[in-house]
Amino acid sequence: MSLNFNKEAPPLYSQIKKDIKRKIKNSEYKPGEKIPSEKELQEIFDVSRITVRKAVLELVEEGYLSRQRGIGTIVRRQKIEEKLSKVMTFTEEMQIRNIKPSTKLAKIEKLVPEHEIAEFMQLAEGVEVYRITRLRCADGEPIVLFITYLNPVLSLPLTDKSYYGSLYKLIKKTNNKEVRKAAEYIEAIIADNNLAEKLDVEIGSAILKTTRRGYADHENPLEYTECFYRADKYRYFVELNR
């Protein structure tokens, strides 16, 4: 079936590329599925193989497709993109994108924190805080390791099973408190043995680390969280105006 492309408009390969990208975004071509072969695309668009190949190669370079020997050209799962504009929970982020959030690992303990965390929470030396370690998944795939320290002003359950859902919802339910304001610091690191094992990546893989300092009402320090995201699955963006 030939599509009616305007041959005086942008180059044909660009029009084909735009059409394939639209179908990916509309889920006509779903992540993990094969798109039509080059020969089939030639027939669909009524163009040369060179034109089709150029469109496909550019989509591969941009991360929309991947070519697998013996299989064909596959739609890649797109990175989860978070806009830095408001405080949101991981669960909320996933639900907005129609992605199923889950927790593979959750552990709570009480301990004396490092000096930087104690200073942020304005605690005396030796005072214990809550530390909650959680491995969160998107559609069943590990995507981020959270290590969260919470101010001991909170009264929280000490059972691991309590932390498999939204942490912020739990804090709201048990203490009627919530993080109203946060500052986030972003940096790039590489996966060590521990991160590689938990996030199911190779040692040395790129990791997006964020550190959140969260405040309750009246800017009372409540949360200090280190987040370790798989850089191949997640990215941030900021919208700037002048």
UniProtKB/TrEMBL annotation:
SMART domains: HTH_GNTR, UTRA
Claim: 4Fe-4S is one of the keywords in the record: no
InterPro entries, per the entry: Bact_HTH_transcr_reg, Chorismate_lyase_/UTRA_dom_sf, Tscrpt_reg_HTH_GntR, UTRA, WH-like_DNA-bd_sf, WH_DNA-bd_sf
Keywords: DNA-binding, Transcription, Transcription regulation
Any one GO biological process: negative regulation of DNA-templated transcription
Short name of any one Pfam family annotated for the protein: UTRA
Source organism superkingdom: Bacteria
Single annotated GO MF: DNA-binding transcription factor activity
Keyword Kinase belongs to the record: no
The HTH gntR-type domain, residue ranges: 10-78
Name of the protein in question: GntR family transcriptional regulator
